[in-house]
């Protein structure tokens, strides 16, 4: 099927930020940080904090904050510097206290999550963890001596998928099998989240009724579940399997929740591909993403390239941040036809 013969005529950077970084940091993040780091971040002017995406704590290393372009060392006075010698040095006590606060003073309760290398805190923010990994029978049994934390600030952007929805929906109650190709940190998860929300609510302007959406959220980033409850608005007809491996989760979802479409992030393994084929054979649609830079880039890969050669996907969307995070570079049909430059 060839996509509609019309162009996406504007740059599709995200439009609506529902919560400011100030609001998120004040209400979700600060209470989880050690006292010293909390007091430093409180000193940072709000307009400087607004673009921040990550807070990095590394034991005996400088405190760092990252926006989507680069990282900054943070001084004890709350100023950004390119010179690490001026930075506040994170202590082991900072790391220990921060983890204690994030776990509500019960690190034992988050041991299972720690095995995955990350935890999710209230607000749906994912915190990556590094330390000494203990294995048993070729499986991770414990991460201890925590030495690093990456607090990723989750921002839901309502309308992030507005410009692609007309290419994804089919009629009033179906969708195209869709693949989003994107380099890291170019907004693919944000777009998947908003696609799920819009499909679940329905889209009046496209005369599209809400449909049942199943999200298999292996890394807890699409729905941002905290204690099983989605922290992001993913719509009223959406079910979530949180922290579940994609290959298992897709099959569980079609057996248990009869979704119209399954949405999942970052496919990549042979097991993922086998599960996707079972989903499609069950008559369920799929919308997913993959790390990459172009359709040609994906076709060269031994496992994933087969998906494109076999025209599994009816729509392919390529993202970048050439004109801001979430820039839609191109939209193709499954055969690579109908390239739409923005």
List keywords for this structure.
11 helices, alpha+beta, 7-stranded antiparallel sheet, 342 residues, globular
Descriptive notes:
It is a single chain. This protein has 342 residues and is an alpha+beta fold. Helices cover 26% and strands 29% of the residues. It is built from eleven helices and 22 strands. It has helices at 21-29, 35-42, 46-49, 92-102, 111-114, 162-168, 188-201, 246-256, 270-281, 295-299, 305-309; strands at 16-17, 54-58, 64-66, 71-74, 80-81, 118-121, 125-136, 139-152, 157-158, 169-170, 174-175, 178-182, 202-203, 208-209, 213-217, 225-226, 229-230, 238-242, 261-264, 285-291, 315-320, 327-333. Helix 8 runs parallel beside helix 9 (270-281). The chain starts with 15 loop residues before the first strand and ends in a 9-residue tail after the last strand.
How is the main sheet built? 7 strands, antiparallel
Unreliable stretches covering 5 or more consecutive residues: 1-17
Tally of helical runs: 11
Inertia-based shape: globular
Q: Count the beta strands.
A: 22
For the largest sheet, list the strands in their spatial order.
Answer: 5-4-3-2-8-7-6
DSSP strand content: 25-35%
The level of helicity is: 25-40%
């Amino acid at each position: 099927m060839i996509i509609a013969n019309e162009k996406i005529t504007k740059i599709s950077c995200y439009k609506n930020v529902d919560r400011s970084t100030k609001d998120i940091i004040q209400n979700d993040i600060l209470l989880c940080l050690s006292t010293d780091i909390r007091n430093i971040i409180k000193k940072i002017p709000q307009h400087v904090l607004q673009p921040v995406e990550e807070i990095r704590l590394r034991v005996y290393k400088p405190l760092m904050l990252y926006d989507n372009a680069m990282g900054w060392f943070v001084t004890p006075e709350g100023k950004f510097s390119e010179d690490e010698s001026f930075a506040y040095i994170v202590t082991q006590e900072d790391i220990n206290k921060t983890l204690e606060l994030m776990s509500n003073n019960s690190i034992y309760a988050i041991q299972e999550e720690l095995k995955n290398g990350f935890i999710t805190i209230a607000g749906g923010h994912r915190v990556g963890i590094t330390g000494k990994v203990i294995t048993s029978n070729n499986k991770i049994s414990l991460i201890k001596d925590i030495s690093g934390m990456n607090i990723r600030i989750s921002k839901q952007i309502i309308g992030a998928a507005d410009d692609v929805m007309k290419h994804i929906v089919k009629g009033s109650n179906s969708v195209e099998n869709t693949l989003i190709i994107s380099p890291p940190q170019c907004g693919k998860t944000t777009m998947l989240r908003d696609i799920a929300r819009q499909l679940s609510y329905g889209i009046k302007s496209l005369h599209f009724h809400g449909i049942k959406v199943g999200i298999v959220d292996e890394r807890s980033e699409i729905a941002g579940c905290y204690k099983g409850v989605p922290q992001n608005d993913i719509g009223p007809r959406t079910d979530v399997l949180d922290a579940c491996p994609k290959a298992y989760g897709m099959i569980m979802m079609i057996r248990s929740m009869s979704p119209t479409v399954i949405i999942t992030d970052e496919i990549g393994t042979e097991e993922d591909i086998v599960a996707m084929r079972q989903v499609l054979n069950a008559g369920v649609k799929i919308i997913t993403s993959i790390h990459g830079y172009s359709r040609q880039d994906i076709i060269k890969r031994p496992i994933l390239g087969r998906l494109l050669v076999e025209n599994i996907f009816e729509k392919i969307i390529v993202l970048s941040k050439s004109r801001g995070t979430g820039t839609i570079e191109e939209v193709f049909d499954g055969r690579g036809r109908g390239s739409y430059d923005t």
